[in-house]
Amino acid sequence: MALLLRLVLLCGVADFTSSLSITTPDQMIEKAKGETAYLPCKFTLSPEDQGPLDIEWLLSPADNQKVDQVIILYSGDKIYDDYYQDLKGRVHFTSSDLKSGDASINVTNLRLSDIGTYQCKVKKAPGVGNKKIQLTVLVKPSGIRCYVDGSEEIGNDFKLKCEPKEGSLPLQYEWQKLSNSQKLPTLWLPDMKSPVISVKNASTEYSGTYSCTVTNRVGSDQCQLRLNVVPPSNRAGTIAGAVVGILLALVLIGLIVFCCRKKRREEKYEKEVHHDIREDVPPPKSRASTARSYIGSNHSSLGSMSPSNMEGYAKTQYNQVPSEDFERPPQSPTLAPAKVAAPNLSRMGAVPVMIPAQSKDGSIV
After folding, report:
1. Exposure letters 152-169 (e unless 16+ CB within 10 A, then b)
2. For the chain, does the N or the C end have fewer beta carbons within 10 angstroms?
3. What is the pLDDT along the chain (365 residues), one digit of tens a residue?
């Protein structure tokens, strides 16, 4: 029994006279993304601690699949801060004289990947001590958007919505009315702490400017919206106008298509006519053939004219025929030209007319 008591006293004295000790307690720290986290680690030494001073910070990532990583080290009066690539250039000792008992560090420009358990180890033989700090990186609410989901008309149902672009949970919401009565409608009170306010049977008294504030443990952000409840619009007139507009557009499209088709048909017709003229039209008649046709037409005209104007017309018509274009029929050199008698026109009710004959020299007898 006495021996056991002696052992307990020896252990108590040894613990009481233990050398190196870290005075900073274990703790949890929450910081916002992009901020700087201060991780304290202060220690005291005793005269028994005569060995070299070594300080080591390790990170146990939140992902349990990763092993502990040394992020910064002090040994042999030198600092080594390039062990961990993800924190390279972002972790520093806060004191320029680590032997004074301050091994605290700063982690700047915090990222979500920095979440984890940080462990401070201090060694100065024979003393050894360590402490752990849990770091949580949160995202402040930002990019808050306020808007009305629905038609802002009297008698309608719609919703007022407040949506943050980012922000770590949990989030708290608070709605306020900034104009008119400065009070939210009584029916909205149950929703004033939620991201959505459901509006039923809207009236003009709901009009005004509203704000929504979103908060979490590391920050807050706010947005505003203007609610303007108006009388219902003339939907029938709007629909009629839309229908008329569509019909006019269809008519215009039809006219454009018709004009295009018409123009194509005309171009096609011109090409076909031009092709026929070039390939299908026979060559023009000779001058002699033209003269025969001219005389034949005069003979037919003479048969239908009255005796009173027969003589003048006959002279005029024959005088108009060029002598060089008149085709002379072949005649025998020994025979006299025959006279051609006019048909018996008396039976037809017309005066007989003698058709002049040609002499050998081409003159009219």
Report:
1. beeeeebebbbebeebbe
2. N
3. 344 434 433 343 333 445 788 999 989 999 999 999 999 999 998 888 888 999 999 999 887 667 889 999 999 999 999 888 999 999 999 999 999 999 999 999 999 999 999 999 999 989 999 999 999 999 999 999 999 999 999 999 999 999 999 999 999 999 998 886 667 778 888 888 999 999 999 998 899 999 999 999 999 999 999 999 999 876 655 677 788 889 888 898 988 998 888 888 888 777 776 665 555 555 555 554 444 544 454 444 444 444 445 444 444 444 444 444 444 555 544 444 444 444 454 444 444 445 555 555 555 54
CA dihedral 78, 80, 81, 85 (to 10 degrees): 170
CA distance 123 to 291: 138
Which residue spans within the chain are E strands per DSSP? 21-22, 27-32, 37-39, 43-44, 53-61, 69-75, 78-80, 91-93, 105-107, 116-124, 127-138, 145-149, 158-163, 172-177, 196-199, 208-216, 219-227
For the question of whether the overall pTM of this predicted structure is more than 0.70, the answer is: no
DSSP assigned state of 157: -
What whole-number distance in Å separates Cα of residue 335 and Cα of residue 324?
A: 24
Measured distance between the N- and C-terminal CA atoms of the chain, rounded to whole angstroms: 186
**Tokens found for residue 342:** 């006019």
